[in-house]
Design goal:
Helices cover 36% and strands 19% of the residues. It is built from 12 helices and 11 strands.
């Protein structure tokens, strides 16, 4: 028998708030919750915590990276988390995941993880869905406030992203490949507030970058000081467009900056092209696969207008040796970064990821690149 709140036969119980696309009116946060979440409330305030506790999040995939994301979001006190995965727990999963054990081998990943996730924070409603994500219609996503897809190929990511846009829901994608990984965000259009001490120079309502515009400015008094609340608006692109978009002019405008762009971006694009051409998720160590991947990587590097010397054979070899594997320190970093960004977005605080974060643990670097089609000039009117 399934535990209360668990998924049954691939569907969410009809009495679940997840099944209803309408937002449930959040009750005022209780004194017990204030005590429980005291540390984070001090960081982002009661209003942000109230938004967090009513948030309904869908997490697709339940491998090592998703374990970290689930852990961080549940501990933060979200309203509900639906974990969707149609795959079974394998012995390989035991080496990288901390929500399953030998007893779960052969069971569905999502269903097996639920009981251990629940122990982190019983206040969070948890649901498991064992269906294939690709059978879900776009309306399925309307019942969530945030969708996070992990460790999927580009084709299903593009389908999910398009469905999220159809129902106007923010979307994240992320994956880890051994020493390497990425986070992608498509928040469609997102407003957030930056708090800063008010300056003598008035804030102008104008475009700051090709994606970011200052849309409002207000003030408040805090501890005898004037604090300015600046509302900014970010525009995003779906993953299929971001994958074919050029680097911004300022990133390829000088030789020095070109040299700083990590070859990981090239290799991720080559991997996604490989999936399309070879019809498989990951290249093998066969000569044919290595030859195909090297050709694709060389083409992608040229498309990005990057120097050929930055795509070294040593990096290609390292990426191919790591692709598809999982390393706890990398998944912990990516899971923490993604969960923190989700929390900030739900609370409409701080600058969100715009739009690709690339992590190379060998270099201990995680730069963010805004990859978009050609945008209008910065003097476009505010709308």
């Amino acid at each position: 028998m399934a535990a209360e709140g668990d998924q049954v036969n691939g569907t969410i119980p009809s009495n679940s708030t997840i099944a209803d696309g309408n937002m449930v009116q959040a009750q005022a946060i209780s004194a017990d919750e204030i005590a429980l979440y005291d540390r984070q409330i001090r960081l982002w305030g009661v209003k942000a915590q109230e938004k967090l506790r009513s948030a309904k999040i869908l997490l697709i995939g339940m491998k090592a990276l998703a374990n970290e994301i689930a852990k961080n979001l549940v501990l933060a006190g979200i309203g509900s988390l639906t974990i969707l995965d149609d795959q079974l727990v394998t012995e390989e999963d035991l080496g990288s995941q901390f929500f399953v054990s030998e007893l779960h081998v052969g069971l569905n990943r999502a269903a097996a993880a639920i009981s251990q996730v629940r122990t982190l924070n019983p206040r969070v409603a948890l649901y498991a869905d064992t269906e294939n994500i690709l059978v879900k219609p776009p309306e399925f996503y309307a019942g969530f406030d945030m969708i996070i897809a992990t460790d999927l190929d580009l084709a299903p990511l593009s389908i999910i992203n398009a469905a999220c846009r159809f129902v106007n829901k923010p979307f994240y994608a992320a994956a880890s490949h051994g020493f390497y990984g990425f986070i992608f965000a498509d928040l469609i259009v997102h407003d957030y507030v930056i708090e800063r001490e008010k300056s003598n120079v008035p804030t102008q309502l104008k475009a700051e970058t090709v994606t970011r515009t200052v849309v409002a400015s207000n003030t408040k008094i805090e501890n005898g000081k004037q604090i300015e609340l600046v509302t900014k608006r970010e525009h995003y692109s779906p993953i299929n467009l971001a994958n074919t978009s050029p680097l911004q002019p300022e990133q390829v405008g000088s030789w020095r900056r070109k040299l700083q762009v990590p070859p990981l971006l090239t290799c991720l694009r080559a991997l996604w092209d490989f999936q399309s051409e070879a019809g498989r998720s990951l290249p093998t160590q066969s000569h044919a696969d290595l030859q195909l991947f090297t050709r694709l990587a060389t083409e992608k590097h040229k498309e990005l207008q990057l120097p050929s010397e930055t795509l070294r054979s040593e990096f290609l070899r390292s990426f191919l040796q790591n692709v598809g594997s999982e390393m706890a320190p990398v998944t912990a970093f990516l899971g923490g970064q993604l969960a923190q960004d989700v929390i900030n977005v739900l609370g409409q605080r701080e600058q969100p990821i715009q739009n690709f974060l690339l992590f190379d643990s060998d270099e201990s670097k995680g730069p963010v690149y805004a990859l978009h089609p050609i945008f209008p000039p910065l003097d476009r009117p505010i709308v």
